[in-house]
Design goal:
25% strand; 9-stranded mixed sheet; 17 helices; elongated; alpha+beta; SH3 type barrels; 701 residues; 20% helix
Amino acid sequence: MEPRTVLNEKFFIVTRGKSRKGFCRGCIGRIESETKRGEFVGLLYGGNSNPGTPKNGGLVRIEDMYPLTRHQAQLLLFIPSASRRLELLCNPQLFSAICELSQDDLVVVKHKNGHLPGLVKNLMQIGRKDNKDDLYMLAFEVEFVDTDHNLSSKKPPLSLFSAADIIQVVPSYSVPLGLQWKDGRYGGLNRKAVTRNSCIANIGSHAQPATENHTEQSLIQNQSLSSVPLEVGSMVEVVSNSGITVYGVIRWLGVPGGKTGEWAGIELDYDVKGCSDGMYGGQRFFTCKEKRALFVPITKCSPDGRFLSASTGKGILKSTDTTPVPPYEDTDEDVPPIPESEAPSLLVGKMKGIQGHINSCYLDATLFSLFSSSVTLDGICKKPADTDQPITCTLRAIVNRLRRQGFVPAESVMNFRTHLGCDTFRTEEKDPEEFITVLFQKVLCTEPLLKLRSKQETSQGAYTFQIFLEKEQMGQIPTVQQLMDTSCLTGDLKFETMPSCLIVQMPRFGNKYKMFSHIIPSLKLDITDLLYNSPRECFVCGRLAEYECLQCLPDCKLQPGRIKQYCTTCNAQMHNHPSRQGHSPSALAVPVGVPTDTPVPRHTMELFAVLCIQTSHYVSFVKYGSDAHSWIFFDSMADRCGDDQSGYNIPEVRACPELGDFLSQPEEKLSRANPSQAPELVRRLLCDSYMFLYQSSPMQL
């Protein structure tokens, strides 16, 4: 095997693959030659004595590495942790801007005292160069800036920071024009506009010196953004009093008490001292993490400049640009559901969850709901008929990646869609019910999740339970429990066995028709009275029931909406009433040998996810733990970077503790609640709910 010499100097970082012959994930190397098999012979950097001195590395495949320029390799080499190198690489906008930094550029760095602004003063070469193959590591000397726009008056020694310590690069146009430091200067003559999207998703490009025209163009683009209308959900930036630009998403718009003009409540990308958790002036406007909520006049907000190309329509994205996909190494081991304590840090944020692409929201929301935090379906997923089928392996890889990394790129989902057996799954909008049937029947090869028995004593299987009833049978805002009870009694259906997973489909058809304007979720679904041949207690006295009555269901004197079953004595007494003498109670199949005075155990299921639809777009709410506030909201297409041809969708997961606050109220209070006055996400769930996903209680599992 004779290698061919590679003439150009090429550096790389290993992004995936198991460690072999010296290389592992996060290692920095240089290509020496290429074999006839398409593998590369590389030198490895990062020794203990002198990290810049290369040593024999071995072979590495092209699919396991990411190309780097010399400058990028030197910056990454000063980061001692391989995981932090990869983490920075996962943010190509930021890494690209860091690579283009020059003297007197303004940055925000991680420091023991928090996130501090400062000016880049020098790019330092670290290490020694004993021979021509050695590399200097590169680090930044930063001079801190106080909150009054002053350089630190004490003039301490300049602090040294790696590229991984920089969390924000501040564009020059973000600083108010005319702002000067006390010594009469602001930046140098070579001051340039540095944005975090100056080379979005294109890390391999070389830094180009900025020109006066480039700065002027950035200012013109920024001014054009001021005319873009802002609304709840818009990604914006705000210049703070210290000249630092903060980024976030508008969660609320309105006029706070004591203020004039429209204000915006913004959830910031990271903690900022002095910010709240959604409270302002003693009133709560939305809920987020502590130190993330900023309230400012709407005139202070501008569209997020990091996505300038998407907003102006004159983007710098090219058709070759790709989504910034975090490196990932797949394993054969099944990853358990995300623990409650880890879910917020792993899942919440932008570029989290499953990335949408070409009408995939129905599939993204369904997979996220079923597999991100629930343990119920894990046993089912391990029992397909043929675990070596490509589609089964692809699904397992999606689930593992979601649970391990918190993000699944669109390419993985598109690969899964191509195996679903029908071309329309690749490009067209689908109903989650159709996908769920295909998923369990053809992909996981499982028996129906539900076994239903009708009055004719015939048994049938189903993967979802469709609510069928007349609108007049229910109140204006029903609960899921009331809908289930009424639908089962109306259709005379019972569950043959206790299901481990129950997916309840509301009486609506896509976005065109819904029977109820709002539906209240039932956190616990009691199906004791819906089980066939199972003991049930009398609604009146609690003894063993022998009759049930459909006509008593809406009786306003007997807790309307609750199933009514009676023992023989109470059945006769209740139907002696003149208003009930025309009822036709039916006999129950009472199990043999059950004592009439034995307490009946209750069989309940717990809500773990809700699928919602609005204007043909599906999203989901997921309960990721036992705490009442452990709710998150997922949208696979929350935002977009670039145009329809060359851009990509930005998925987002948001914490939604306010949903827990709302649903923790007593049922009587919920029935009287005004949904229009509920918080944004709570209102969205009540209005747009389409499927409620329940699992058997942990004790029963």
